[in-house]
Amino acid sequence: xxxxxxxxxxxxxxxxxxxxxxxxxxxxxxxxxxxxxxxxxxxxxxxxxxxxxxxxxxxxxxxxxxxxxxxxxxxxxxxxxxxxxxxxxxxxxxxxxxxxxxxxxxxxxxxxxxxxxxxxxxxxxxxxxxxxxxxxxxxxxxxxxxxxxxxxxx
Length: 154
Known about the structure:
Largest sheet: none
Strand content: under 5%
Structural class: mainly alpha
C-alpha cells in the first residue's frame, strides 16, 4: 500500500512541476533557462503564422456511414446500383481458387484439400493413420503475444 501512495505522490509532484514550468515559459519568466532550440522553434512558428491564415486545417474525416461504405465496396463498377454479378464476384474468385481442375464443379477432394494436405504432412510413416504423436503435429500454431518494449520512446 505504501508503494502505491509513494508512486501517486511522485506522479503528483511531476505533474505539478511540469505545470509550473509550462506556465513560466508561457509567461516568459526569465527565472527558468529555456534551451535555444526551443525558442528558435517558437520564433519560426511565429514567423510562419504571420500570413494571417492561422493554423492549417485538419484533414476532413470520411462522412460516409458504415452502411454507405459497405455499399461502395459491393458496387464494383461505381454506377450507384448493385447487380447480382457484383455480389458473386468475390465468391467466384474464392471458388476458382478451390476448383483446381477448372471444370466448374467442386468435388469433395477439392473442397477438403487443406485437410488432406495436413493429414499427408502429419502422416510421417505413410501408413494412412495418425498416431497420437503424429496428430499432435497438426495442432494450430499459436501466435505469440505482442511484446511490449521496455524502453518505449513513444
